[in-house]
Amino acid sequence: MRWVITHRMMRVPRVLILYASITGNTQQIALMLAKFLDSYGVKTELVTPEIFTFGDLQPYQGLLIGTYTYGNDANIPDEMLDVYEWLQDQNLKGLPFGVFGSGDLYYGSNKFCKASLSFQNLLIKCGGESVYHPVKVDKYPDFDDDIQEIQKLACHLATEMKEWRHGVCRINKSFL
Ligand SMILES: Cc1cc2nc3c(=O)[nH]c(=O)nc-3n(C[C@H](O)[C@H](O)[C@H](O)COP(=O)(O)O)c2cc1C
Fewer CB atoms < 10 Å away: N or C end of the chain? Predict the structure, then answer.
C-alpha cells in the first residue's frame, strides 16, 4: 500500500522562545522572532521564566533563549539563572537552538550582551546545535541591520527543521 502524505498530515514544528526582559527590548526581539517563524510555518510558544513550567524539552523541535545583561559584571539576570540551571540538566543533543538578547554598547564591547553569550556557550556544551551566532541588539531593535539579523536567526532555525517542513524560508537570499 502506498501512503500519500498530505499537507494536513505534516507535523508542524514547535519552537520554545524563553526570554527575560525588564524594559521591553528583549521582549520586542522575541516577538519579532515569533512573527518571522510564524511566517515560515513554525509554531512558537513565547514564555518568560516567571510563567514557564520547567518541564522537559521533548515537545519542542527548536529552542530560542533571550536575555538582557545586567549588574556590575555583565551578569545573567536573576530570573534567567533558573533557566540556566534548568538547561544544564536537559538533554539538548541535536536540538537546533538560537540565542538573542539586548544590551547596551555603553558598557563596552567586552560586556555587551555578555549574558546571551553565556547561554550560547552553555547550550553548545549541553549538545545543542547552534543554528546562528547570538543576535545581539543595542537596546531596542529598530535598525534595519538588527531586523535583518533577527530574521536571519528565525530563517536559519526554520530551515534547520526541514525534516518537518522543507524549504520554509522565503526571505531575500542576500540576507543569508
Ligand atoms: C545596572 C545595569 C547594568 C547593565 N549592564 C550591562 C552590561 O554589562 N552589558 C550590556 O550589554 N548591557 C547592560 N545593561 C543594559 C541592558 O542590558 C539594556 O538596557 C537592555 O536593553 C535591557 O533589556 P530589556 O529592555 O529587555 O530589559 C545594563 C543595564 C543596567 C541598568
Answer: N
